[in-house]
Model the fold of this input.
Amino acid sequence: MTAIINIFLKEGVLDPQGKATHHALDSLGFSGVDDVRIGKQIIIKLESEDKIEAEKEVHKMCDTLLANTVIEDYTIEIR
Amino acid sequence: MTAIINIFLKEGVLDPQGKATHHALDSLGFSGVDDVRIGKQIIIKLESEDKIEAEKEVHKMCDTLLANTVIEDYTIEIR
Done:
């Protein structure tokens, strides 16, 4: 199975990388951009064939290593 | 409209961040992981309400600033 994890800064947490990118797009003449936010996407290939178990395992991975849950939210999609 | 851009290293390009994460997951006792790849997800809020035009604009943004097309591939989803 494949797990696709998207990790983003929580609403209200300043995203300096996004702000810098927004600024750079403006400088390059891309007007019409309201907001830019940048996150991580992690794709994990798992040996497990059990979707529910895989999701549980990936949740644990996120909480212990992949995401900083103080400032980040994450979503998991198992395929 | 909202553009969701996923940027990943091309197949065959070494992903040291993914390798390190894979190793860390192993050390933490998460066996059953075959592969880890880490990319960026960029979410851009656009003023434009024209889907086709928005997609064209975002393609240009990726080619000029957001992605390094020598070593990275990207996908665009417009919502």
About this structure: The mean pLDDT of chain A is 95.
